Amino acid sequence: MSTTNDDNKAAAAQTVKPAGKPAAKKAPAKSARRRSREAALQGLYQWLITGDEVGAIDAHMREQDGFGKLDKAHYDALLNGCIVEAADLDAVLARHVDRKTTELSPIEHGVLMIGAYELKHCMDIPYRVAINEAVELAKAFGGTDGHKYVNGVLDRAAADLRPQEVAARGR
């Protein structure tokens, strides 16, 4: 079987990389903790919008594809902890936001709750990591510049929730 000139050109085009264009980098795989935060955010969003019971929200989240790939203990702590401590977390956030937390977008509100919860309870996570993870959630799910707002609020909240760690970093 003979190949035509067009077949040869097509084969050559497939094997030659265009000059000047770097190969696309593959995004790193998400960690189990990042997946936990994403699932908790989705559950918090549902709770903030509908006011559904945490058990129903949790059951719905556990049915989602990829749930088995997340850190279930961290997800449970975030979803349940943020809902149980919503008033306390909002009180912490209220000192650093420019409006009532109920007036925030539900995505930014949920992200801020997760960030504040991790700052308050997850001492194994450095405060800068907790803030960065919240910023990444806001970038992925929030409005265009919502991540900047989240960063500013949580940076100020960290000074309240982890004063020694923040002070040590400042030295």
UniProtKB/TrEMBL annotation:
Belongs to the NusB family. Involved in transcription antitermination. Required for transcription of ribosomal RNA (rRNA) genes. Binds specifically to the boxA antiterminator sequence of the ribosomal RNA (rrn) operons. Residues 35-158 form the NusB/RsmB/TIM44 domain. Transmembrane segments: none annotated. Residues 1-35 are annotated as: Disordered. SUPFAM superfamilies: NusB-like (SSF48013). The keyword Transcription applies. This is Transcription antitermination protein NusB. NCBIfam families: nusB (TIGR01951). Residues 23-35 have a biased composition (Basic residues). Gene3D superfamilies: NusB-like (1.10.940.10). Keywords: RNA-binding, Transcription, Transcription antitermination, Transcription regulation.
